[in-house]
Amino acid sequence: MTRRVVVTGVGLVCALGIGTEESWKNLVAGQSGIAPITLFDTTGFDCTFAGEVKNFDPLNWIEKKELKKMGRFIQIALAGADFAVRMSNWSKETETDLDEVGVYVSSGIGGFDIIEREHWKLVQGGPGKISPFFIPSAIVNLASGNISIRYGARGPNSATATACSASAHAIGDSFKIIERGAAEMMICGGTEATITPMGVGGFASMRALSTRNDDPAHASRPFDLNRDGFVVGEGAGILILESLEHAQKRNAPIFAEIVGYGMSGDAYHITQPAENGDGAFRVMRAALKDAKIDGSAIGYLNAHGTSTPIGDAIETTAIKRLFGERAKQVPVSSTKSMTGHLLGGAGGLEAGISVLALRDQILPPTINYETPDPACDLDYVPNTARKAPVEYALSNSFGFGGTNAALIFKRWSGK
Q1: What is the phi/psi pair of residue 278, to 5°?
Q2: DSSP states of 133-162 as a string?
Q3: Is 341 a catalytic residue?
Q4: Looking only at Cα atoms, what is the longest distance across the chain?
Q5: Could you tell me the CATH superfamily of domain 262-411?
Q6: Domain extents in the chain
Q7: Do domains 5-249 and 262-411 have the same CATH topology?
């Protein structure tokens, strides 16, 4: 018999708030977290705004002497994990077997800030100036590593670096780890902090970013006719997944059940999705198959929806192919309109948002939706959150290299 897996904690840190409930409140209110960049001097940059985590003080979670060992993406991940663990009412002191608790927290890029800083030291002063903590503070899996050390989690420990699908893959893989009995609980999701000169400059050189520098709050406009590129965001989205038996044994709060996970590859292009949306269609179909439901059960879809001219139209095509005649009745929203695009952290953040949508039966909006695009003609929950009965929520994540992930969550009914 297949083991059931439930969500008992959600930890969100993003441009809309430091903490799960603050972030969720501002999402439902339709606020924008996009503003001019303060983390570095943007003089000469084509794009000068982003979705920064504002007023983030890592000393609230990390001892000062430890900070030099951690890039910003690790610091934010530890904060997200703390919010998730607290929400789940779990502690290592009461856990009966820490060998059964794993960590799987991913990132698309890792410590870009550290790489840039230490390279500058090398150029300016030679190799003797490079910090001995350079490597462990920058590599992708050290978010998982530090979280496992903090909580004594000795079970499976991993991290994917599958671009913008990374944290959705982490959650899906964790679901399967628990389902097959290789762990009882997983702290999983993703984190990213790439609002750096190389990060922003690199995406801008690809002409992937919005350049609406005179109006940052309205720059991320998924599915709108006048969208001109995505907005870089930073933050973390961490879930606590547990076997149903483990959660019930410790009387944990249960906010949703994870029931479906799909993976696919476009096999098409290094940065562009297949024109017919085939990879996106197949990954959603795979998640439905895994959940043993059909498209008629889905009541909300949290789209990848990055606000790029090509990507949003192709995702719309894939959704229409999946749902057929019902496509226009399925509420679809892109919360990247408010948070920016967290890259490798996006899937974790949006999985958490999908769980909260099921918990509260509220669909977060796609803000800045002003001018309909004939190529994007679905119900994007425009500008205002909506109360709606939702049994199943689907969350999409698509990454460079044509790597795709889809997750399906079910409202928890207590049974």
Answers
A1: -60, -45
A2: THHHHHSTTHHHHHHHHHHT--S-EE----
A3: yes
A4: 64
A5: Thiolase/Chalcone synthase (3.40.47.10)
A6: 5-249, 262-411
A7: yes
Q: Which residues pair with 123 in a beta bridge?
A: none
Of 164, 169, 188, 246, the active-site residue reads 164
Contact 240, 84 (CB under 8 A): yes
Is the separation of the CB atoms in 336 and 230 below 8 Å?
yes
Q: Are 232 and 348 in contact (CB under 8 A)?
A: no
Question: What is the three-class DSSP state of 131?
Answer: coil
Which residues, 6 or more positions from 207, have their beta carbon under 8 angstroms from its beta carbon? 229
Catalytic residue among 169, 246, 341, 376: 341
DSSP 6-61: EEEEEEEEETTEESHHHHHHHHHTT----EE--SS--TT-S--EEB--TT--GGGT
* First-to-last C-alpha distance (Å) of the chain: 16
Bridge pairing between strands 185-192 and 101-106: parallel
According to CATH, the superfamily of the domain at 5-249 is Thiolase/Chalcone synthase (3.40.47.10)
* pTM greater than the 0.85 cutoff: yes
Choice among 14, 47, 188, 304 that is catalytic: 304
Task: Give the number of C-alpha atoms closer than 13 A to the C-alpha of residue 116, restricted to the C-beta side.
Answer: 18
- Tens digit of each residue's pLDDT, the chain (415 residues): 689 999 999 999 999 999 999 999 999 999 999 999 999 999 999 999 999 999 999 999 999 999 999 999 999 999 999 999 999 999 999 999 999 999 999 999 999 999 999 999 999 999 999 999 999 999 999 999 999 999 999 999 999 999 999 999 999 999 999 999 999 999 999 999 999 999 999 999 999 999 999 999 999 999 999 999 999 999 999 999 999 999 999 999 999 999 999 999 999 999 888 889 999 999 999 999 999 999 999 999 999 999 999 999 999 999 999 999 999 999 999 999 999 999 999 999 999 999 999 999 999 999 999 999 999 999 999 999 999 999 999 999 999 999 999 999 999 988 7
- C-alpha to C-alpha distances, 344 to 45, 48, 140, 143, 398, nearest whole angstrom: 23, 21, 10, 12, 10
Q: Are 112 and 193 in contact (CB under 8 A)?
A: yes
